Amino acid sequence: MSNTVKLFQPLTLRGTTLPNRIVVSPLCQYSAVDGFAQPWHFAHLSTFARGKAGLVFTEATAVEARGRITHACLGIWSDAQAEALRPIVEFIESMGCVPGMQLAHAGRKASTRPPFAAKGPIPLNHEDSATDGAPWQTVAPSPLPVADGWHVPAELDPQGLEEVRDAFVAAARRAVDTGFRVLELHMAHGYLLHSFLSPLGNQREDAYGGDLDGRMRFPLEVAAAVRAAIPDELPLFSRISAIDGREGGWTIEDSVIFSRRMAEVGVDVVDCSSGGIGGAPRFRSDDSGKPLTSDSARAPGFQVPFSRQVREEADIRSMAVGVIIDPQQAEEILQSGGADLVALGREVMYDPFWPLHAAETLGVDPDYQMWPTQYAWAVDRRAQIQLLNRLD
Ligand SMILES: Cc1cc2nc3c(=O)[nH]c(=O)nc-3n(C[C@H](O)[C@H](O)[C@H](O)COP(=O)(O)O)c2cc1C
């Protein structure tokens, strides 16, 4: 099978080969118990491996308990939590796909309620309950709440910074020991590491705040420490919010500079999302600080310009994400140099077999050879029956 379709060309990053360029974006499920993966996580993530996405990321997985967004978020601050993820890793590998983990700390956006329960921070006077649990003290670069009505985070002191950095390193080691072959650091969407980068989240006066160098310092230290702790052959990704889209916020020019610095400490791929530094949903702002209309925020590939610019100007591989829906659209992003990888979120939840369907649409897999063996022969038979019925 000759394959000029880029979407289905393998990509080798360090010693890890992704079988294609399709990535399942991290997707919080708010279904963990005490940070432990549940049967839902197995069903959810294994479905994408049956669908043959090249790289399947876990949801944002907290490196320490207070770094969870909600009580129901996945965690990897204990060996037992990592062990609970092992069957998922093994299944993804058995499908020829690569398991990845997004390591996260929610910072001042922690201690909230799952979106399908009730949005926003858990009220401080809230009684412990089965749905929300009790609120907890959040941490951040500066004691600035996300928005009115949010918890005031405690400012991390030098010892606190060290603890968080160590938690990222310990979590990365556990993830590697469990078999994850790609790690991504969550530096986007207003969570802890993003709030260090953005002047809107970071008003420190020590070496970890102030100018761009100061604000980049802690995220770069975390990246360098994680890089040093994991094997050389494993790729390290970083998800950034390429723009804050708010006056006085982080800009695409900052992202280019930061991406160059990340490359220097051994980050291999920059995953380009946007927004989230304030309380508003992240798809609502543009580079000039103007709110996007809801139409432009939903436009296909609206964040691709960020991944293209980072890729071109920072000389690092990039991943595009955000309303990538159509196989031809995804192929065009790769062919035109907009990104090295495409990540899908909502679309792949709608159709977990999106990669297999895309391969059929793009003529890469006319005989259903990519499908899991257990399905391939039957799906082929189904196609023949369809053909016969059309001829009749
Ligand atoms: C249900 C849901 C959960 C998400 N969880 C995460 C997450 O854990 N980490 C993250 O970086 N982004 C998360 N995102 C953002 C997605 O990874 C993705 O960037 C975003 O949905 C845009 O891609 P899409 O248009 O293909 O959905 C989530 C999005 C959704 C819809």
How many distinct beta strands? Answer: 12
| Large-scale geometry | globular
* Helical fraction: 25-40%
Strand order of the largest sheet: 3-4-5-8-9-10-11-12
In N-to-C order, the SSE pattern is EEEHEHEEEHEHHEHEHHEHEHHH
The major pleated sheet works out as: 8 strands, parallel, barrel
Task: Report the span from N to C terminus.
Answer: 30 Å
Are there runs of 5+ residues with pLDDT below 50, and where? 281-285
Question: Could you say which structural class the secondary elements and strand pairing correspond to?
Answer: alpha/beta
Which cofactors or ions or other ligands sit in this model? Answer: flavin mononucleotide
Mean pLDDT: 93
Rg measurement, Å: 21 Å
Kindly estimate the percentage of residues that lie in beta strands according to DSSP. Answer: 5-15%
| Tally of helical segments | 12
Keywords:
alpha/beta; eight-stranded parallel barrel; two-stranded antiparallel sheet; 14% strand; binds flavin mononucleotide
What's the helix and strand layout?
Elements: E1 11-13, E2 16-18, E3 22-24, H1 39-50, E4 55-62, H2 79-94, E5 98-104, E6 139-140, E7 154-155, H3 158-178, E8 182-187, H4 192-197, H5 212-229, E9 236-241, H6 252-264, E10 269-273, H7 294-297, H8 304-314, E11 317-321, H9 327-335, E12 341-344, H10 346-350, H11 354-361, H12 373-391
Helix pairs in contact: 1-2, 2-3, 3-5, 5-6, 6-8
The protein binds flavin mononucleotide.
The site of flavin mononucleotide has 20 residues, from strand 4 and helix 10.
